[in-house]
Write a structure and sequence with these properties.
- With 495 residues, the protein is an alpha/beta fold.
- The chain folds into two domains: 185 residues, P-loop containing nucleotide triphosphate hydrolases (Rossmann fold, 3-Layer(aba) Sandwich), CATH 3.40.50.300; 256 residues, no CATH class.
- The protein is 52% helix and 10% strand.
- The protein has 18 helices and ten strands.
- It has a six-stranded mixed β-sheet, with helices on both faces.
- Helix 5 links the parallel strand 4 and strand 5.
- Helix 8 crosses helix 17, helix 16 crosses helix 18 and helix 17 packs antiparallel against helix 18.
- The chain is elongated, with a radius of gyration of 30 Å.
- The relative contact order is 0.11.
Length: 495
């Protein structure tokens, strides 16, 4: 049996009642600005085709942005009185300016009738389906046309747990289940969708296409998937590079006299210039990190086809975020031993971790006498091996940077183009929990990869990138089970 013939294009028509958000969603799907967006009816009054996906050999998926249905009750009443409702509607001539609702409705119907392979019908999640009477009327019109319809539930608000969003979608699915033309109902918010949700839409479209369009659709889906995986991989490399560079970053503590060094070992007790010198070093380290976070976030924004720059993140310069390196001179430590009757509580654990965490409990833990001050200095030098005092980021803080990086990725990857210029906003609480869980599961591998970067064994950040990519994939699969196979089977968008 010979394979089915193929055509070079797949056409989707985006349609809804006026002012529900078609053009806003179209901008998000297309990754660029089109049309005009305003909070008023009939902003779009002509149908316009835009390329959503294109392959090197000329295959194309077109997305039509259509005028919204207008006075649907009036239109439906007139259609019901005609022997051939759609034929009658298409043959009428209405004034574009004096009878704008009927004109726009006619343009939408013409587009669906003549061009659409699949209709994407948008509804507003904030409305009660039983109260949106116009939806049922417009469904009757679409049933007369007979093209398969995928209902997209828009304006779902900020991302929420999958079960919560599923209930919102189910409300509309149940309300529209009586219409045979409705073949699927999906959630797809123009402001807060994720690219893996677009993959579910493409899969659904493929199931509804005629046989002669499916080969082209499969090739277009592969092109869509490769584009998004390229963006995903590039985003991970940006974030991994920022984390690895932060792990290698150091700032020398300068300007300390002999007496300052003595005071520096017990600064939380005595304070003074030694503490100020360390704080200057910490501030310099934090300033560089602040700039790196802004730079990497702006790169994510650019990769995702958005606009705007990230607001400079205000870093809380908590001392527990820094680790101070030695050496501690044995003679100085012996003098300190004259003040202290033993070593500092919690130090053994810090030494095992590779450093003394300033303000993290090791110094403030008390005078427990774990071992003598001279032994403390020897152990410190042995672990640190540094030639001059420096500060660096602590391992725990670097794990926190990984959590922050994943949250930033989720925020940018969910930011719909239709929303306008990028603005940072608070991540949903459940995202924070999911990210913390993903990092905890792979924490050992993350620490090992960061340690390799610190030692200069992973100059290209490959190990850190592999761990961050694994965490990001796990996150997307937990948030969107439909993403389960996207990363494993290129070219196939899973259920």
């Amino acid at each position: 049996m010979s394979p089915p013939a193929t055509t070079a294009s797949v056409t989707l028509s985006l349609i809804s009642h006026t002012n529900v958000g078609k053009t806003t969603l179209a901008r998000t799907l297309l990754r660029r600005d089109i049309g005009e967006v305003a909070d008023q009816p009939h902003v779009t009054d002509v149908s316009e085709a835009h390329t959503m996906i294109e392959t090197a050999d000329g295959l194309r998926m077109a997305l039509w942005d259509t005028p919204g249905f207008g006075d649907t009750a009036h239109l439906l009443k007139r259609l019901k009185s005609a022997n051939s409702p759609i034929g009658w509607l298409l043959s009428q001539v209405w004034d574009r300016f004096r009878d704008r609702p009927l004109w726009c409705s006619q343009q939408a119907v013409r587009n669906v009738q003549s061009d659409a392979d699949v209709v994407l019908y948008l509804v507003n999640a904030t409305e009660d389906p039983s109260a949106a009477a116009y939806v049922g009327m417009e469904m009757q019109i679409l049933e007369w046309i007979g093209k398969p319809v995928v209902v997209l539930v828009n304006q779902l608000g900020p991302p929420r747990e999958a079960a919560v969003e599923a209930r919102e979608v189910e409300r509309w699915k149940s309300a529209l289940g009586q219409y045979a033309v409705v073949r699927a109902t999906l959630g797809l918010d123009a402001f807060a969708r994720c690219w893996v949700q677009e993959g579910r839409l493409l899969e659904t479209v493929g199931e509804l296409l005629p046989a002669d369009k499916r080969v082209a659709h499969e090739a277009l889906t592969r092109a869509w998937q490769q584009r998004n995986l390229d963006v995903f991989q590039a985003s991970i490399q940006v974030l991994a590079g920022q984390i690895a560079r932060s792990a290698r970053d150091r700032e020398s503590i300068v300007g300390e006299s002999w007496e300052d060094k003595v005071r520096g070992v017990i600064a939380p007790v005595l304070g003074g210039e030694a503490r100020r010198a360390r704080e200057r070093a910490m501030t310099a380290l934090a300033t560089r990190l602040d700039a790196a976070i802004v730079e990497s976030t702006n790169r994510l924004i650019e990769l995702h086809g958005l606009e705007g720059e990230a607001a400079a993140e205000i870093l809380e310069r908590m001392r527990e975020n820094f680790t101070e390196s030695g050496p501690v001179d044995a003679s100085i430590a012996a003098i300190v031993g004259g003040f202290l009757s033993g070593a500092l509580g919690g130090l053994a654990a810090d030494l095992a971790a590779g450093g003394l965490t300033v303000g993290g409990g090791a110094i403030a833990g008390g005078l427990l006498g774990a071992f003598g001050a001279a032994g403390l200095a020897k152990g410190y030098n042995l672990v640190k091996g540094a030639e001059k005092p420096t500060v660096r980021w602590s391992p725990e803080f670097l794990a926190g940077l990984a959590r922050g990086a994943l949250l930033r990725y989720l925020a940018v990857a969910h930011f719909g183009r239709g929303r306008g210029r990028w603005q940072e906003s608070e991540a949903p609480t459940f995202w924070q929990d999911e990210v913390a869980s993903a990092v905890a599961v792979d924490r050992q591998a993350l620490d090992a990869a960061i340690a390799a970067s610190e030692r200069g064994e992973d100059a290209d950040t490959r190990r850190v990138g592999q761990v961050i990519a694994r965490m990001a994939q796990a996150l997307l699969q937990r948030l969107y089970p439909d993403a389960a196979g996207v990363f494993e089977q290129p070219g196939k968008v899973p259920r």
